[in-house]
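Reopening this ticket.

The earlier resolution said the output was attached, but the attachment link was broken on my side. Pasting everything inline this time so it's all in one place.
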Amino acid sequence: MRRTLIQSVLPLTFCLVPLLAAALIAVALPAAARDFYLSHLTALDVLILALGCTLFWVQLVLAWRALRWRGPGFDERPDPWLSHLAQAAEWFPLLGLLGTVAGILQTFAGTTGQVTPAQVIHNYAPAITATGSGLLMALVNILPSWVVLLGRQLIQALGGGEPAHDKH
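Inline output:
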């Protein structure tokens, strides 16, 4: 029972934490903001979300493998990949910023003469959604690596092993 808990249940449970965090973020957003975001998605948003979700799922699979305790230690083969993919998550805010600048330029390009507030909001929406997409994907994509670090320590403590020492 303890072996199953340590080798299978805990790694799976830890891998669910980033999924639950992403769901919690989506639920915690005010409904009006969430509806506005979803109704104003652009091609850049879809690209950011698709890349971010793909990266997220790959990291979850690697995190699950990295959290599996086999014999004297953990499977460390996914570690370099997890590190690189976590670093790749740093690009999402920059993609969002690119979309923000494009949205602002679009707003200025569409403002000639008398402009109504509705026109400004319509033109500015891509700037806001791109920012949101980039930040959301950056946030959820840093979680899997953090979960591996924390999860390994807890699994090792529950398994009665010596705490791992930092290799740096």
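Reporter confirms the inline version is readable. The longest strand covers residues 69-70. The mean pLDDT is 85.
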